[in-house]
Hints:
Chain A is an alpha/beta fold. Chain A contains 13 helices and 9 strands.
Amino acid sequence: MKLEELRFGTELLKRGFASMQKGGVIMDVVNAEQARIAEDAGAVAVMALERVPADIRKAGGVARMADPAIILEIMDAVSIPVMAKVRIGHFVEAQILESLGVDMIDESEVLTPADEEYHIDKKAFSVPFVCGARDLGEALRRIHEGAAMIRTKGEAGTGNVVEAVRHMRNIMGEIRALQGKTPQEITSRARELEAPPDLLLETVKMGRLPVVNFSAGGIATPADAALMMQMGADGVFVGSGIFHSGNPEKMARAIVEAVNHYDDPKVIAEVSRGLGQPMKGIDVHTLREDEVLQYRGC
Amino acid sequence: MGVRLGVLALQGDVSEHILGFERALRVMGEADWAVIPVRKPGDLEGLHGLAIPGGESTTISRLIGKNGLFEPLAGFEGGIFATCAGMVLVADRVDDPRVKPLGLIDMAVQRNAFGRQRESFEADISVRGLGRPYRAYFIRAPVATETGRGVEVLAKIDAGVVAVRKGKHMALSFHPELGNDPGIHVMFLEHLFTGK
């Protein structure tokens, strides 16, 4: 049969793509070799970068979209989806990634923001976007702009899960606190959260965000990943935590299994044995204010 | 005993599949039923049907092995409702050595047959036995490039075969669990209950 009227890039296809990632681990990689290790370990997707967040911190300066050559090399190397990051508000970087055929774009605070007023109008793109959030208001503002997936911001490149925990608690706690409230009360709270009221009403009714909600920013061990899953994440992003650890292949496989068995401590104990050194990490309280990435783009 | 259905809950759009089955059972007026997530071999006991959801087939295949589910799934006696990654997993031959197919349906399947996410699309297709156009959502979808004898082709588009039935099993390139139309779920369940 001939297909008439094929439609591409619809809201359902974008959110549907994100749904297929649920229960999975998305891993940061900087070259084809790392991408293959991630795929073989059972990653559901990879995030193609020039540097992982811990190295972006070290390098300093302005962090931008990765070189397309690196992204294309990674796209050629694996059959799972490939994501890549753009600066907040940098819609031309997003146009470039869309033209390369990247499967999802992360409009990310890990890179240096290009616009301090506006995020990208994500509804104008056919490629789906994921965006970071620290609380429910921020998450709903991003969804309103067209994000098909949300992730906690956490504090990327620190190997310290404390901020991801804080952000997941903020989001899930606020949703729980609003259960049983009247539409009028919810609408009033929406104004305080600077969130679109209809989206907040939908969220409260569903008892969860209306799009897939991952955790990111500081996950460094299988236990960290399982912690975020037990707190309500649909899946996890692991950045520096894998390829900055002593044994990346083993760590990658262990985190995949810990996410699969997040509520079974025996399995998490088993996969955590003899993993070698996890990434060293940074105490978030020692960061200078200008080194904290999560304040970018609210 | 009522109807017992499961959804393989290793990775992918599991909750959508649970809701999809629940909606279809309500439409069909079934009174006594349960839909459960399946994560280990014991969960398969007593199930009449099982959905294998969309997700990443390489990931799900790896987790099937890790969880000791390969033999129990390959020998499952109920009907299997497989979508997207599920279609890849129930096939007999797959174009990727990382996927160990369950061999439940005699067909060869090509992963990501349309390309990347930008080639994902939705369109009205005709499905044999449904009698009306059906809105299908293809997300980095596979197609069947060959089907063996005894495999009934339910839908075919230019790129290849996108829906098949073999005995109690049904495999689809697209995602009926993402839309609002319970038609395909109802077709699967009616066939499972009555053999028609």
